[in-house]
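Suppose a classmate hands you a notebook page containing two proteins, each written out with its sequence and a corresponding row of C-alpha cells. How would you begin to make sense of it? This section walks through that situation. The first entry is reproduced here exactly as it would appear on such a page.
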Amino acid sequence: MPIYLTGYIDDHTDRLKSYHDDILPLGMIVQPKTHREGYLRRAGLYGWVAIDNGRFTDAGRRLFRPADYARLVGEGLERAGDHLLFATAPDVPFDWAATLRLSRPWLRRIRRMGCPAALCAQEGMTPASIPWDEFDCLFVGGADAFKEGPIVRDACREARRRGKWVHMGRVNGLRRLRVALGFGVDSVDGTYLLHEARKGRACQAPQDVVSWLRQVHADRRRELRRGLERLGVGSDRIDAILGQRRGPGLSGLLPGDTGQGGVINTIPGPEHIP
C-alpha cells in the first residue's frame, strides 16, 4: 500500500496512526501554513513526513516566502531525518515551462541541504522535457484530466524504472486512489480529512480512508486470484498462496508489491508460484 500523507492532523488522526498503522501507513505532508501551526512538532508520531510548497492555491502562493521555505526544509530534516520523503521545489500550477524555470534552482538548493527534491509534473510536460537527473521524486500535480492521463502514467512508470519516488497529490477518494495505484505510486496526499472535519465528521473521516484501502486490498486479491486461475492453479493452492500473502492487517505483500508502497501490476508466472 502507498503511504497516505495527510495534510490535516488532529486528535482523531493521531489515534488512527496509533491503532491502524498496519492497515494505513499514515504520514503527514506539511506546507508553509501548517508549519506555522506547529505540524512538524508532531513529526515523531507520524514517522513519514513530506514538505510541499503550498503554491497550488492563491492563498498558498501569497504565503510562500523563499527564506521561510528553506527554513521549513531545514526543520523537516532535523525533526524527520531519513523519514523526510521529499520537499517539492516551488512550481507554477498548470504550466510546465514556468515550473521548470522556477523549480530547477530550487531542486539544486533542496538537494544541497540533504533533502530529496521533488519536481511537480504540470500541464505541458512531455517525456523529452523531464530533467530526470535533477530530482529524486516525481510529484504528480496538475488538473484532474492531466493527472490521470497517459503522459503522467508513462512518466510514473519511467520514474519507477529510474528508481525515483513517485507521489500523487490530491487523492481524496477511492476512484483516485485506484488510479494512483495503477500508476505505481509510492505515496499519495489529500485534504479529505480536513474537508470532512469541517463538516463535523472528524471522527468518521479517517475510517473512510481505511475503508478505501480495504476495498483496494480486496480488489487486488480478486485480481490475483483471477490471474492464478488463468494460469491453471487449483483453488486449494490459490487459497494457500493468498493465505501466505495475507500477513498482519493489510500490510502483507501481494505479488506486484514492491515492499516500498509502490505497485507494479504483474501476475506471477508459474515458475514463481511456491
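The notebook's second entry, a different protein, reads as follows.
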Amino acid sequence: MPQSGLLTGRVLFIAGVGAQMGAATASIAAREGAKVVLAARNRDVIDQVANDIGDAGGEAMAIQCDLTDKASTESAVSAAQQHFGPIDRVFYNAGFYDNDRDSIDVDEDLWQTTMDVNLNGALLLSRLTIPSMVEHGGGAFVFNSSAASLVAGQVRFGYQVAKAGVNALTRFIAAKYGRDRIRANATLPFVVGGEVGAVAGAQNCIGRSGTAEEIGEAVTFLLSDRASIITGQVIHLDGGLFARASWPTNAAPFQPPAPLKTSH
C-alpha cells in the first residue's frame, strides 16, 4: 500500500459489504491509505475482504453487524473506534429490495424492513458518527442511493420511498453540518447484468454498464479531500444513462446494444 493516498490517515466505516460495490470500495479505499471497517451481516464476505486487504498491505477489520438493530450498530461503531480511532468517513452501502411488491397495498412487515435497511440504518449510523466528526474537525459521508429514488417504477415501491429519504438525509447533513467541515453526497450507481444491464448499456453514453470497481473509485474520490467542494449532491454513476435515456424498467422493451467501437 502507498505511504500517501487519497484517504491516508482516515478511518472509513463501510456499512453493508457485499461481493460487488462494497468489497470493491473497501479494497480501493485501503489502497488509498484508509483504515477500513467492514460491517455487515455476512461474516464470510467481510472476513474475506479484510484478509485480502491485509494481504495487500492495508488495514481492515471485519465486524458482524445488523444495521437494523440499534444495539448491534452501536457496538460496531464502538469497536471500530476502539481499534482504529475516531471514524471520519462513512460509506452506507446497505440495501434491501422489495421486488415482489407492485401495489400500494404494501405488506407492513416488508415495508418496515425496507425502511430499516435502506433509510433508518443510514440515519442511525449518521447519528452515531456525526458528533465525533464535529469534535475532531470534520468528515465525509457517501450514501449509496438509487435512481429509483428519482423516477417512477412499477415495483419496489418501498425501496423508492426509502432511497428518496436517503437523498433527503444527504442534503440535510450537508446543509446542517457543512460549517463543521462535514460533507455528504449520495450516489446513484447502475451496475447490473442480465437484460436490464444490456438495456442500460444500449441507452447510456458509453455503451456498457459500469463495474463495481468504477463505482468504488468514484466513492473513494468523494470521500477524499480532493472532493472538498462537492457536498449535498445526488450523483448518477451510470455511464450517462440519465443524460440521454428513459429509465429502463420492465415496461421498457429490450433493445439489442450496438457494438462497441474499438480503437486502432
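A careful reader of the second entry would note: Residues 11-244 form a domain with the Rossmann fold fold (CATH 3.40.50.720).
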